[in-house]
Each structure stands twice: as structure tokens, then as C-alpha cells.
Amino acid sequence: MATTNLVRDGRAVRSTIFLKMLMAGSGLIFIGFVLTHMYGNLKAFAGHDAFNEYAHHLRTFGEPMLPHEGLLWIIRVVLLLSLVVHVYAAATLWRRAKQARPTAYVMKKKTGASLSSLTMRWGGVTILLFIIWHLLNFTIVKINVTGGATNDPYNLLVDTFATWWLTLIYLVAMAALGMHLHHGIWSAAQTLGLTGNAAKRVLWKRIAAIVATIIAVGFSLVPIFVLVGVISK
Q: Which of 38, 92, 100, 191 is least surrounded by Cβ atoms within 10 Å, i.e. has the fewest?
């Protein structure tokens, strides 16, 4: 009986580690994507033609070896699969943690946990909802709340972020993304065995903070500068 329990416990531990590895791997894919996407967004500072040329280039990159939008669809499929894996792993780990602690407990006032770690789950839900809206806004449906045209990427971007409440939603989502990345990068480093001593732990905490800040601030620049009129049609 004891041997059976040890085997089950061992399998559960290996399964948990595997799920954490999946979260770390899929998370790294997302970090690479958001850094690239942020670079593209910042093209808006170069003006209408530069931004639209970049948007057009994404659809023709790899031709003629790849069909029109071929690379874009490969990226979309990889991101979709990564999202499914990331959400599944997160939900499974959360459910297991909840089952392992069936009775509620009173949270101590000082736990040493960061705001990023405490908001990790709800931050993830916020980001997921934002991704759905973002895709509807700029890709799947292309929604222009001002009633303007949707066939010009730069103009659609300006019309969107010139609307204050859409910019506010975007900034809240970027704050959630920054906090999610802050804790997520640190957790991924732990999972991958990169925090074995005090010096490495300090290093990866700094890396997590720097990368999260760069991404959150970088994505926030365009909507803010559109809203104040620096970036305009």
C-alpha cells in the first residue's frame, strides 16, 4: 500500500513538473512574440507609410517560397497552440493546488508574496479576455468604433487609441501583462533550474523586472501618444 502511494506521488510530481515545463516553454514563445509585436507597434512613430509598409511586409514575408500570409498563419497556429497549452497547464495546476488544500485558510498579512504573484491568476484571465478583444478589433473583424474605414492599419490604430476608453482598456491590459510577465519569467527561470543560488536568483529577479517593464511600457507608448495627439493621421 505504501509502495503504491509512493508511485502515485512520484507520478503526480513528475506530471506537475511537466506541466510547469509546458508553461515555461509556451511562455517563452509568447515573450518572443510580444517583443516582436512591440517593435512593430512602435513603427507608428515613423508615420503612416512606415507602419503600413511593416503591416504589409508581414503578409508577404517568405514569398514566393511561402504563399501570401503563409508565415503569418504559421505564427498564428504556433501562438494558438501555445495559448491552449499555457491555459491548460495553468488551469490544471490551479485545480491540483486547490484540491491539495480543500479547506480555506486565513491569509497572513505579510507573506512575502509580490503583487505580481498574488494577481497571477486573475491577471492571466484579464490578458486572455484582452487578446480576444484585440483580435476582434484589429484582425478578425476589424472594429472601428469611430465608424471610419478599417482597411488601413495605421488609421485604424489611430482611430482606436484616440478613443479614451479604448486606450484605458489597453493600458489596464498592459499593466496586467507586465505583472504577469514579472512573476512568469521568474517562475519559468525556477522551473528551468536557472535560480540555483542567491546570485542567480537576484539576477533573474532583475531580468524579470526589466523585461516586464520594457514590454508593458513599450506597448503603452503608442496608445498614450495617439491619445495626446502626437501620433495622428
A: 100
Rounded CA separation 205/165 (Å): 33
Q: Is 163 left (phi over 0), alpha (psi -120 to 50) or beta?
A: beta
Helices 153-161 and 198-227 meet at what angle, rounded to 10?
90
Rg (CA), the chain: 21
Q: String of b and e for 184-220 (b: at least 16 CB within 10 Å)?
A: bbbbbbebeeebeeeeeeeebbeebbebbeebbebbb
Return the C-alpha cell found at 122: 486573475
Low-confidence residues in the chain, pLDDT < 70: 1-14, 101-118
Name the residue among 46, 40, 24, 65 with its Cα closest to residue 183: 24
The pLDDT tens digits for 158-197 are: 999 999 999 999 999 999 999 999 999 999 999 989 998 9
